Amino acid sequence: MAKKVLVIGEVKDGVLRNVSFEAIAAGKTVANGGEVVGVLLGENVSGLTDELIQYGADRVIVVDHADLSSYTTDAYQQALLQVFDVENPEGVILGHTSIGKDVSPRLAMKLNAGLISDAVSIELDGEDAVFTRPIYSGKAFEKKKVKEGVVFATIRPNNIEALEPDSARKVDITNLTVDIKDLRTTIKDVVRKATGGVDLSEANVVVAGGRGVKSKEGFGPLQELADLLGGAVGASRGACDADYCDYGLQIGQTGKVVTPDLYFAIGISGAIQHLAGMSNSKVIVAINKDPEAPIFEIADYGIVGDLFEIVPILTEELKNVLV
Ligand code: FAD
Questions:
Q1: Cβ(236) to ligand 1 under 6 A?
Q2: What is the mean pLDDT of the chain?
Q3: pLDDT exceeding 70 applies to what percent of the chain?
Q4: Is 237 among the annotated ligand-binding positions?
Q5: For helices 220-228 and 307-322, angle between their N-to-C axes, nearest 10 degrees
Q6: Is the pLDDT reported for residue 97 higher than 70?
C-alpha cells in the first residue's frame, strides 16, 4: 500500500543539510509510490523549498515561526506535532543528526510509533520498508521493520544516496501556522566555535589525526590535506584528550559517526571505540609508524612510516594530480 511520508528538512546556517535530500530518497522507498512531503521548519526558510522539490519532495509544508529560528526541543516538538495532526502521516523520516536524535524519540512516543534509528539502507520487502542499521558499535548489522502504525526512522548521513536533482519539478507549497507556547528554553545567542567550512558528519573526505600527531600544530598538515581534498579534519579521542584539538572533532563511540568515501586515519592506533565511528567509511587509508597497529586490520590501504614525513609528501603528490 502506498504511504504518505513526511521528511523533515534540516537547516543549518541557512542551508539545507545534505541528509535532508538523502531522507527524501529514503522517504520515496518507504512511501512505496505514495506521497513524500517535505517539511521545512525555521524562520525565513521559504527560500529553501526549491531544493527540497528538486530532490524529489512531492509537496512541501513550510512552518515559519520566530521560535523555530534555532533548534530547541520544545519548539520543534510542538511544531512537528501540529504538522502531524494536520497530515496524519504513515511514515516520518529525519536525519540521524543531533536534532534528529533528540526530537525523534519524543515524536515517536507521542505518535505511539515504532522508531528505527540510525538506518544505513532501506529496501522494500513486499510492501514493508526494511531498514538496515548497525549494532554493537558497527560490528554487525540488523534488519528491522515496523509491523504496524507509523513507520518512523532516522537515517545516518552519507549512506542513502539522494536522487538526482530535477530543477524542472514544480509542486504545491503550503504555509502552516503553528502555535508555540510555554517554552522551557529559549536561545538568546549562538556562539560558534571557529571550525573549517566542511561539516564533519557529512564530509566525503575525512582526514583524522590521533595522539601520534603530537601537538595542535601537528594538525596543520592534516588540515592542508583536508582542504586540498575538500574534506574535513577529525580526530581520535586520544588527540582530543591531549588537547591537540576540540572535542567537536572526535570520531567514535562517544564522538561523531562518519561514513565518508575516503577516511585517513593518521597516527591513530585503531581502538575499538574509534572504529565504532568510522569503520563503515568506503575507503580507509591508515598512516602509522607501528606495523602492528590494529587500524591496519580494517584499512584498505596502509602506509607504515612517520606521519610527519608522509603527510606532506602525500599532499604535494596530490597537488600535482589535482591542482
Ligand atoms: P593511541 O592509541 O595512543 O595511538 C597513537 C598511534 O599513533 C599509535 O598507533 C602510534 O603508533 C602512532 N604514532 C605515533 N607517532 C607516530 C608518527 N610519528 N607517525 C605515525 N604514527 C605515529 N576513542 C576515540 O577515538 N573515539 C571515541 O569516541 C572513544 N570513545 C571511548 C569511550 C570509552 C568508554 C572508552 C573507554 C574509550 C574511548 N575512546 C575513544 C578511547 C580509545 O579507547 C583510545 O584510547 C583512543 O582511540 C586512542 O587514540 P589514538 O589512537 O589517537 O591514540
A1: yes
A2: 95
A3: 99
A4: yes
A5: 20
A6: yes
Q: Check whether 78 is labelled as a binding-site residue.
A: no
Cα 212 from Cα 231, distance rounded (Å): 20
DSSP for 200-222 reads: GGG-SEEEEE-GGG-STGGGHHH
The finding on whether 253 has its CB within 6 A of some atom of ligand 1 is yes
Model confidence pLDDT, tens digit, residues 297-317 = 999 999 999 999 999 999 999
Q: What number does the ligand 1 atom closest to the CA of 235 have? A: 25
Among the residue ranges 84-93, 130-139, 149-158, the one predicted with the least confidence is: 130-139
Residue 238 Cα: closest atom of ligand 1 = 49
- CB of 237 within 6 A of ligand 1: the answer is yes
Reference 56, options 35, 42, 86, 74; nearest CA is 35
**Ligand 1 mean position to 118 CA, how many Å?**
25
Kindly state if the Cβ of 157 falls inside 6 Å of ligand 1: no
Residue 179 and residue 205 in contact, taking contact as beta carbons nearer than 8 Å: no
- Which class for 298: exposed (0-12), middle (13-18), buried (19 or more C-beta within 10 A)? middle
Cα(165) to centroid of ligand 1, in Å? 40
Give the residue whose CA is nearest to atom 14 of ligand 1.
212
Residue 196 has a pLDDT of 57
**234: closest CA among 203, 212, 191, 261?**
203
